[in-house]
Amino acid sequence: MNLSAVRLVITTVLILAGCQLQAQQQPALLNKPSQLEINKISRVIGEALGTNNIRLSHTIFSETNVLIVERQPIKSNPHLHSANDKPDHFVLLKDSNGCFIYHKQSEQQWLLENIECYAYQDKGDI
Fold first, then answer.
1. pLDDT tens readout for residues 72-103
2. Of 8, 51, 74, 94, which is the most buried if we count CB atoms within 10 A?
C-alpha cells in the first residue's frame, strides 16, 4: 500500500469515528423549561401513552433526566390492576442532532424541535 492510500484509510477511519462520537446520546437536562416547551413534551408523552390527558410539572427534566409515569387504577375497583399498570419510563437525551425523549418500554424516541437541553453527568438515574 502506498502512502496516499494509507492516509486515505486513516482519514476515513477518523471521520467515521468522529461521526459515531457525535451521534452518541447522553443524559440531558432542561434549564427552566418554558410553558411552550412543557406543552411540546406533554404532547410527545401523550402520544407515547395514547392519551392527551397529560399534566407535567414546570420542573420537568430540569432536576433529573428520567420521568416515570404511573397509570391510575381502574376507577370501578381501585385495588384491581391490569397488565398495563406498570409505570412508563421516559428519558431525556442529547446528541449532536438535538434533544430527544426516549420511551424505554417501546424503545421509541422523539426529537424535541426548538428545545434546548444540555448534557450532564449521569448519576445513575437511568
1. 666 666 666 555 678 999 999 999 999 999 99
2. 94
CB 106 within 8 A of CB 93: no
**DSSP one-letter code for 32:** S
Distance CA 23, CA 34 (A): 26
3-state secondary structure of 9: helix
Angle at 22 between CA 34 and CA 65, to 5 degrees: 35
The C-alpha cell at 74 is 381502574
Please report the DSSP string for 51-109 in residue order. Answer: -S-----TTTTTS-SEEEEPPPPPTT-TT---GGGSPEEEEEEEETTEEEEEETTTTEE
Which sign, positive or negative, has the C-alpha torsion 66, 61, 40, 116? Answer: negative
Q: Hey, what amino acid is at 58?
A: H
